[in-house]
Write a structure and sequence with these properties.
Layout: E1 12-19, E2 25-30, E3 40-44, E4 48-52, E5 58-63, E6 67-75, E7 78-79, E8 82-83, E9 99-105, E10 112-127, E11 131-140, E12 151-154
Antiparallel strand pairs: 1-2, 1-9, 3-6, 4-5, 6-11, 7-8, 9-10, 10-11, 10-12
Length: 170
C-alpha cells in the first residue's frame, strides 16, 4: 500500500476564470481567503430509471447523470489598500457569464478540484458575530466534451503563476 503524505483538505486556495466571447477561459484570478468550513461540493444523484417486468423485478436499471454545485464564502474585510471588494461582481445575486474554478489544497501533491464550466450566483449575509459574508454558489454545467466529466480531480498548480502550467501534473 502506498504511503499517504497528504489529503485534499486544509487551507484551500481558490482561483477563477471567466469565459470570453470566444468560448475560451480568460485570465485566472486568485480568490481572497475562503471562510473556514464553507467550501463544499454537493452532489445530486441522477434520477433512477427502471424497466420493470412481470413479477416485480427490473429487467434493466439506469441512472441519469448526477448534477453538482459547489459553495464557498468570502468575508468583506479591510485589506491593505482599503476595503475588500467582491471577487466576482453581481447585481442582486445575479452573476453574468460562465466561469471556471480551481481549488488547490495546501497538501503538496494532493488532488485539487477543477470545475470546468459553471454558472455563479451570490448571496449576501450579515451577522454581528461574523460581519458581511458573500456566499458563492457554482452550478456546474455539462462539459463541452461529452466524453469527460464536468469536474476533474488532479494535482494542479497556481494558474496565475506564469512560470508553471495549470494543467494536471504528470
Amino acid at each position: 500500500m502506498a504511503e499517504v503524505t497528504g489529503l485534499s483538505w486544509g487551507a484551500i486556495k481558490g482561483y477563477f476564470s471567466k469565459y470570453g466571447a470566444n468560448g475560451a477561459e480568460g485570465a485566472w484570478t486568485k480568490l481572497p481567503n475562503i471562510v473556514e468550513g464553507t467550501l463544499a461540493l454537493n452532489t445530486e444523484k441522477g434520477d433512477k430509471m427502471e424497466a420493470p417486468i412481470e413479477g416485480g423485478q427490473n429487467e434493466y436499471v439506469q441512472y441519469k447523470k448526477s448534477t453538482f454545485t459547489m459553495e464557498f464564502e468570502i468575508r468583506a474585510a479591510v485589506e491593505t489598500g482599503g476595503l475588500r471588494e467582491k471577487p466576482i461582481k453581481d447585481i442582486d445575486g445575479v452573476v453574468d457569464g460562465v466561469y471556471a474554478f480551481k481549488f488547490i489544497p495546501e497538501s503538496e501533491g494532493s488532488r485539487g478540484i477543477y470545475v470546468k464550466r459553471c454558472a455563479v450566483s451570490v448571496e449576501e449575509t450579515y451577522s454581528s458575530e461574523d460581519g458581511i459574508r458573500w456566499k458563492y454558489t457554482l452550478d456546474v454545467l455539462a462539459s463541452s466534451d461529452t466524453t469527460k466529466s464536468s469536474i476533474e480531480y488532479e494535482h494542479y498548480t497556481d494558474p496565475t503563476d506564469e512560470s508553471s502550467s495549470s494543467a494536471p501534473a504528470a
